[in-house]
Amino acid sequence: MSPRKNEKIQEIRDIRQHELKEAAIELFGTKGYAATKISDITNKAEQSHGLFYHYFKSKEDLYVKVILELLTVIIGTVDQAEEEHDSPLKQLEWLTEVTHSGSLRDGVHRHILIMQALYSDHLTQEVKEEIVEKYRFMVERIEHIIIRGQIAGEFIAGDAEELAVYHLSLVHGLLLTNARKISPIKISADKVLRQLRRHPGQEDDQ
Questions:
Q1: Is the pLDDT of residue 56 over 50?
Q2: Fewest Cβ atoms nearer than 10 Å: which of 61, 68, 100, 140?
């Protein structure tokens, strides 16, 4: 078989696997892990039941892989922010805008999925620890941006980990609020970061 044909076959496999993952993200995010069947995922992705096991050992295997990949993507986005901007303030502005760009529905499903996994009772302790550790690492990356911003005089003084959690809670809370469509708003990175930004002449609370 020619290399070109091999590449084409691999491309088709990658597409099918991606479609299964995307279907799983939506279903896990809306129905939850327990209520989602493998047949629900394959039907939504328009793939055969047998093909599912070509890519994943089980529903749990798919669930864990999807969550770890989502967290890896988030961490990669932080890397990109640091590469594209020197200013910690600009880095968080960019991250905030990216979080609220694209499909609101997809963003909500991903957020809910990660939150569910952090407190799930159907995963092994080893897997839960891996997910929690990856999530903590993501929070630490935001914390380090805030520390650099404090040193540069861009952010207010205070416990950087606490400020990172406040920031992430606000960003995710706005995402979920808009998803309810009761009174959706256009997200402003400037307003989101108002709680962190240190203004000229501002004295930090002691």
A1: yes
A2: 61
Phi-psi category of 32—alpha, beta or left, where left has phi over 0 and alpha has psi -120 to 50?
A: left
Residue 60: alpha-carbon gap to chain centroid: 19
Distance CA(124)–CA(189), nearest Å, equals: 38
SS (H, E, C) 144-199: HHHHHHHHCCCECCCCHHHHHHHHHHHHHHHHHHHHHCCCCCCCCHHHHHHHCECC
pLDDT bin (cut points 50, 70, 90) of residue 156 is very high
CA–CA distances in Å: residue 77 to residues 11, 74, 86, 123: 24, 5, 15, 27
35 closest CA partner among 105, 110, 122: 122
Residue 177, token pair as written in the block: 């609020």
CA–CA separation, 167 and 173 (whole Å): 10
Q: How far is CA 43 from CA 16, 39, 48, in A?
A: 13, 6, 8
Q: Which amino acid is at 20?
A: L
Q: With 0-12 CB in 10 A as exposed, 13-18 as middle and 19+ as buried, what is 46?
A: exposed
pLDDT, position 65? 92
Tell me what pLDDT residue 204 has. 56
